[in-house]
Write a structure and sequence with these properties.
The protein is α/β, with parallel strands linked by helices. It has 12 helices and 7 strands. It has one domain: Rossmann fold (3-Layer(aba) Sandwich). 48% of the residues lie in helices and 19% in strands. Helix 10 packs antiparallel against helix 12 and helix 11 crosses helix 12. The protein is globular.
Length: 274
């Protein structure tokens, strides 16, 4: 691995370590909510859990399945999946702060032993070939420096016939160079067109079973997140420093504008051929 690759990996981890407080605003999650239509009044945190369930259902978890959650964040999706199944779940993150919070959450949940969290690099997984029945990459591929390498490693650790479910960003409207720089500065790889993710997964040697474009279902997440941070500004500032929270709030409108108006989301379910 090159020095540049190490630097990039460390940079993403440092950003997540520094901003780990923001995860608690989302109840231990780092992903979108799901609303069925404009009339859906589901509260934000419930909508986030709904999206976890929608994605999780596509894994088809069975008792005894081994699931790897690549880019598990602070652990809430893996814990929720553990509560809804008897699967054996391992989550990996490259953020020490997220790992700490994930382990605290799983201890509180009573699922310690069934759900575990580890530091790991998705581009160089530490597990033997064919170790897992299912793999989840829930809004984590957007931070990959080499998406093909991530998928190659996922394919390696999946058993033949094993299932991969991932979510990814998609370009719903043309991005300007400024838009792309804004996303990059926020450690989000500027997305390609919706079918780019389909092609990437297929070219990595998977058979795509389902492709779902859902930008209209998740778009309310962006203003809802900003609003939750604003509402909790004073409490967050007291706990983490006013300078940090105010800087975050100042930077967010530009990012949120790009995400809300030009970026959508896709869900892909695929399997490794036998």
């Amino acid at each position: 691995m090159s020095t540049r690759e190490l630097t990039e990996i460390d940079e993403v981890a440092e950003i997540y370590d520094d901003g780990a407080w923001a995860v608690e605003v989302l109840g231990g999650n780092i992903h979108f909510g799901w609303w069925e239509d404009d009339d859906d009044r589901t509260p934000f945190l419930e909508a986030i859990n709904r999206f976890t369930d929608i994605v999780g259902d596509r894994l088809g978890l069975r008792p005894g399945d081994r699931l790897l959650d690549v880019g598990c964040g602070a652990g809430e999706p893996a814990i929720r999946l553990g509560q809804r199944s008897d699967a054996d779940i391992t989550g990996i993150t490259n953020s020490a702060e997220h790992l700490k919070r994930a382990r605290e959450r799983v201890n509180e949940s009573g699922l310690r032993g069934q759900v575990r969290f580890e530091l790991g690099d998705a581009a160089a997984l530490s597990y033997p070939d064919a170790s897992f029945d299912k793999v989840l990459a829930f809004e984590s591929l957007v931070h990959a420096q080499d998406r093909r390498q991530w998928l190659a490693e996922i394919r390696r650790v999946l058993k033949p016939g094993g299932r991969l479910v991932l979510t990814d960003l998609a370009e719903d409207a043309p991005l300007t160079e400024r838009d792309r720089q804004i996303l990059t500065d926020f450690t989000l790889a500027p997305p390609g067109p919706p079918m780019a993710a389909f092609d990437l997964v297929r070219d990595a040697g998977f058979v795509v079973d389902e492709f779902l474009s859902c930008g209209d279902k998740i778009s309310r997440s962006f203003p809802a997140y900003h609003e939750r941070v604003q509402q909790r500004r004073d409490t967050l500032a007291a706990a983490h420093g006013a300078e940090k929270i105010d800087a975050f709030l100042a930077e967010m409108p530009a990012v949120l504008d790009v995400l809300r108006t030009k970026v959508g989301c896709v869900v892909i379910a695929a399997h490794k051929p036998r």
